[in-house]
Amino acid sequence: FELNSETNRTFTRLPIFNRPSHSGLSSAYFIGLIQNMAETDKNKQIARPPVIAVMGHIDHGKSKLLDYIRQTNVVERESGGITQHVSAYEVVHKDQKITFLDTPGHAAFEAMRVRGAQICDIAVLIVSAEEGVKTQTLEALKSIKEHNKPFVVAISKIDKPEANPDRTKQSLAENDVFVEGYGGAIPCALVSSTEGTGVDELLDLLLLVAEMEELKGNPEKPAKGFILETNLDPRAGVTATLIIKDGTLSDKDFVLAGNALGKIKKMENFLGKPVKELMFSSPVKVFGFSELPPVGCEFRAFAAKDEADKWLAENPFTIAPCGKIFNPHVAENAIRIPLVIKADVAGTLEAVEKELAKINLERVFLEVVAKNVGPVSENDVKLVSAFPEAVILGFKVKSEKSAITLAEKSGVTIKTSDIIYKLSEWLEELALGRPPKVTTEETIGRAKILKTFAATKDKQIIGGVVSAGKIVKGLKVKIHRHDNEIGQGKILDLQIQKIKVNEVEENTQFGAEVEAKIEIAGGDVIYAFETVTK
User: Fold this and answer.
1) Which of 6, 41, 206, 525 has the greatest count of CB atoms below 10 A from its CB?
2) How far is it, in rounded angstroms, from Cα 463 to Cα 452?
3) Is residue 46 a contact partner of residue 246, using CB atoms and an 8 Å limit?
4) How far apart are CA 399 and CA 442, in angstroms?
5) d(Cα 440, Cα 386) in Å, to the nearest integer?
6) What does R_g of the chain's alpha carbons equal in angstroms?
7) What per-residue string of b and e applies to 291-304 under the rule 16 or more CB within 10 Å gives b?
């Protein structure tokens, strides 16, 4: 009888004695034993710090609020003035630890905000006192409700001249968010990240909600939690940022997330300092994964590799393929642009895809050939070197010298940027500058056939008069009889009064040698045309 390794790390196996069935050892005995062990596990649980996701519309003050709490200045280091990563931080308020997840507000980072709502215990919905409820406010609210997470409303920027908290509360009420003092019971704090007004009150509210939620954890269990972010560093290899939701993680553990298994080589806390062990609610950076684990995926820690292998065999993990075509419903003659997307971390890779999906051009479709994290490499260029229209987009990554050299030889375009919407703007301009080649048939002239003089197997001598445009030697012709096309041919020779010419103008009689499989008769009409590619 084996116990799950999560239940108790010390006792992993119970002996079952080989006794006759009448020995008195009933199933109730074993059920009672398991129940006792579950009760023991429950008794070992202690209160754990809350994990808080800060969510809301872009530029409503999420990062500045955390800056004030942490007394740091992340905002000025963010490219383009927006938070483009989910970041995790620990703070201490009144001797109690709180873990914060800062989620980006830009529209492209929806998946990262959803992940924040999934992982957190409590959410903070930031709403500007100047602007009220906006698009990403509603999106964040939807994620919070879908994951059934308790939340606190923080009305920010109350120090601004245009601030109107009451109007913001009304805006919230119009979207079925009723805060305390305004017809509801949702906790609400008015804050200024610049002056610090209301920040302590907000932290008090969060600790109160956490207390009411009775968050518990067992420090003696192997750790489990979620993958917050992943990265591929050329020097350090695959790294992942984890949020521990229960148990204790040791630098001697094996960590399994999806199909990615790693023996921990090194652990760092949120300050980047090496640690040997961390408990629940802590963010931790782990070195040693064999491959990039899927972001948002649950992780589990094991004391031995065979335990992890056994668990994976019993709980197989599957993931959808990464290839994608943006704007597939376009004209048949649309131009195809193969794309390779590279980003610094897995979360921003999703965001780049979401941003590119907004591009909607009638005669252009974008096909993602590959996507991955890490710098633009020579292998990335080789992957699409056969496609002259291929583009490699890099977000917050550099390009290796060998990749740049090969791209120049292969005609592959590499574009990198630290601002996500700049990439989509650039790609749209590029696509517009590469209009597809459209092949059409243009009629040059029309002639009525007066008489057929001679005919061989595939050639005929005819006489006619040009009724519109001109007839040109070497052009193809469509042969019409009674307004219906009956075949096609080609003008091999032209004459006017037995003098050879290259073309015949309107209202002029001519003789011609025409190559055609269909027999041309007097009264037929021929249309001379040329194929034009634009």
Assistant:
1) 206
2) 6
3) no
4) 46
5) 27
6) 35
7) ebbbbbbbbbbbee
